[in-house]
Amino acid sequence: MTTRVRFAPSPTGYLHIGATRSALYNYLFARKTGGKFLLRIEDTDLARSTDESTRSILEGLKWIGLEPDEEIVFQSDNAEKHRQAAVKLLDEGKAYRDFTPKEQPTDKNIKQAIVDRARAAHGEKHMRDNPFRDLSMEESDVKANSGEPFAIRLKVPMEGKTSFDDAVYGHQERDYNEIEDLVLLRSDGHPLYNLAVVCDDIEMRISDVIRGQDHLTNTHKQILLYEALGAPVPKFAHLPLILAPGGKKLSKRIHGEIVSLTTYRDAGFIAAAFRNFIALLGWSAGEEREIYTLAELVEKFSLDHVHRNPAIFNFQEGSARHWTDDKALWMNAEYIRAMPLEKLLPFVKAELKSAKLWREEYDDDEKDWFESTVDLIRHRFFTLKDFSNQGRAYFSEDFDFDLAAIEKNLKKFPELQNWLPELAERFASVEDFSHDRIEDVVKEFAEEKGTKLGVIMNGARALLTGVAVGPSMLSVFETLGKEKSILRLKSQIAWNM
RNA sequence: GGCGCAUUCGUCUAGUGGUUAGGACGCAAGGUUCUCAACCUUGAAACAGGAGUUCAAUUCUCCUAUGCGCUACCA
Fold this sequence. Notes:
Shape: elongated
Structural class: mainly alpha
Helix content: 40-55%
Distance between the termini: 71 Å
Strand content: 5-15%
Oligomer: single chain
Strand order of the largest sheet: 1-2-3
Mean pLDDT: 91
Radius of gyration: 31 Å
Number of strands: 13
Largest sheet: 3 strands, parallel
C-alpha cells in the first residue's frame, strides 16, 4: 500500500511556521516513501475561517515548495458525509442523542472556564453519567420527533482502553474512563472536529497521520471513531511543538508576524534556506552539517529522528539584528553567498524589480556586468532585501547615505572634500579603468597626499556606496565604472548632509 | 484539579553504562584587509535537582521541580 499523508491546516490565520514544519515533514515522509502528499483545508469553523487565510496558506506552501499531489480537499464540502456518518453510528447504537440543553459559555475565556469546571469536578467526574446515554431508541426517537434539540455523542465503552504506537512518542495508552463521550454532531447539526477529521482521513485513505503534538491525546478519541466506523486505523506520528523564547507558546496574537511564513518570504528569505532551517527544528539527520538540499532532506528524513521535546524558535523582539532566529538568518546568508550564481540571479532580479531598480539591460547588454556585480556584493548580504537596500548604490544613482558612515569616513577627514574630486580628475585620464590600474592610481595618490590608503578608500566607499561596509573599493570602482566613479567622487551631496 | 509528554551549552542539536560530552548559530578575542556583518584561528558556554541500580550513570529506574499539551455542542 502506498503511503498517503496530509497536511490539514485550519484557515483561521496565516500559515504558522510550526504548521509549515508539519507540512514539510509530511512532504518529506511522502517523498521518502514514494507516497502522496495531500492538502486538506479544515474550514468547518465557519465563524473563524476566511478565504483570505486559505489563500495565504496556499501561497505560503507554494513559496516553500510544498504543493499537494492531488486536488485540495475542503472539509466543509464534506459536512453532509460527516452528518451521515454520525447518523449511521446512531442507527447502529454506537452513538446516542444527548438532549441536554447546550451550555452557553458564560466566560469570554473558554479555556479558563474548562479548567475551572474540571477543577470543580476534582477529577472525579464520571464520564458515562449522561442520562441520555442509555435511553431506549424508541424514547429517543419520540423526543427527537417532538422537536427537542439534541447533539449526537459517541458511546465510549464502559471499560477498556485505547492504545497506539506513535512513531515519535512511542506507545500511548488511555483508559476509556478518561475519555468523555465526545460530541460528534452539534445540536444545530454541525459536525465537530474529531468526526470530520476521521471521516476525511478515511475517505482520503490516509495511511499515516503526521501532525502536531497538541493532537496526541485527541488521537485516542479518533481511534475510537475509526473503530466505531469500522475503518482501519492509520499510523500516527506526533511532532513536538515549536515554542517562543522562554518556552512559551508561539502565537500570532502575542508574537505577531514573526510566526507567519509569508513574513520570511517578504523579508527576502530564499525558500530553500528557510525550508532547510525549519527542517532542522526538531529533527536531525545525526550528522555534523546543516546545509541540505531538498533531495538530501528527503533522502535523510526519518520519523525516528524527530525529537520529543519542543524546539524554541529563538528571536529578540525589537532587535533589528536578531529580529528572527539567528540561525535562520545565517542560513539564508549562507545560501545567498554559496548557491550557484545562476540560481541566485532570478531572485535578485525579482527583488530589484519590486524595488523598481531593475533595468532590461541587465538581461541584455549589461548581463555580464549585472552578474559580476551580484557576485561581488552577495557575500556580505543576509537577505534578498539587501540587494535593494545596502546594494542600492550599485543599481541606481538615487541611494541613501548612512549618516554614521559619512561622519566616520568622510567628515572626519575634511581634506577629502577636495581630495576625492581631485582623484576623480586622475581617473579621468586613466585609459584602462581596471582593478590593477586603479590600484596604482589610488596608491600613488595617497602617497602624494601623505595619507593612509584607508582614508581614501573608506571615504570613497561612503561617497560611492552610501555605506561603510562593502567589497574592496578597487572592485567597487571597477564595477561602477569610470564614469559613475568620477561623478560620485565629485558629488557634494553627502558633504552637505 | 485530572491525564499525558518533555528536560544535553543562550538557541538548534550529536552522543555513549567508562568520551577531554562533539558540531552549528549567536557571543568574545586575535589574525587578515582600504571597511565589514565576509574569511581564518582561538575562547567562554550544557547533561534540571535528588535518590536508587551498578565497579562505573549524562546514558537505566523512581521521586521532585519546571515547561508544554489535552481536558469544548473550538480546530
